[in-house]
Amino acid sequence: MATEIETSLLVIVLDVNSLQRIVKQEMKILSQCLDSTIVFAKAHLVQSSNNELAIMACHGHSAKFLYPYKTTAEIRQMDDQYEKFTMVERTVRQQLQQVINEVPIPLNTKSLISNALSMALCYIARLKREKFAGQKLHPRIIVITASNDSATQYMNYMNIFFTAQRMNVILDVCSLDQELTLLQLGCVITGGNYLKVPQLDELLQDLLVNCLHLILS
Hints:
This protein is of the alpha/beta class. It contains seven helices and six strands; from the N terminus they run βααββααβαβαβα.
């Protein structure tokens, strides 16, 4: 009997809206969040060669996949890093810079997190259809944001949460600023983890302690 291959899929949604309150106060916060996100993504990949990763960016205008990217070029191994790690970091940084450069002004203050979540669920559904015999996919979405909840998106969010529940997709949310009641409800519905990070310099530690072990469980 063939051994079942366990694959943990992590989809990270990073809110890069420059009109987030704490970002307006200090623009370097986005760079710090990106650094922590990349280290966290690498920590997920290093746990198993079977693990898979996707990283998305969203703001007040759109949501977009940063990795994987359809035209990702082969990148040589540097500084003894794994080739995949180098590819992830280079691709994410390059694509995010492109996203930021293309953002129209002014931006909507409300980030399109619900759009990003819908895209993530479609991506997960496709990977589930394409998985090979004997592969078991364990998908998880993590949202990292400093935006507010949007009550006007309530029905969209509820549809997303219950769709994720039916698909056995777990939603984690990491808030960098205010309490997010609606997204916290999504964590409850899908069995995920809600984090309110008190200090930005604790973001990576909180992600590793509170989310990575859940992906491995």
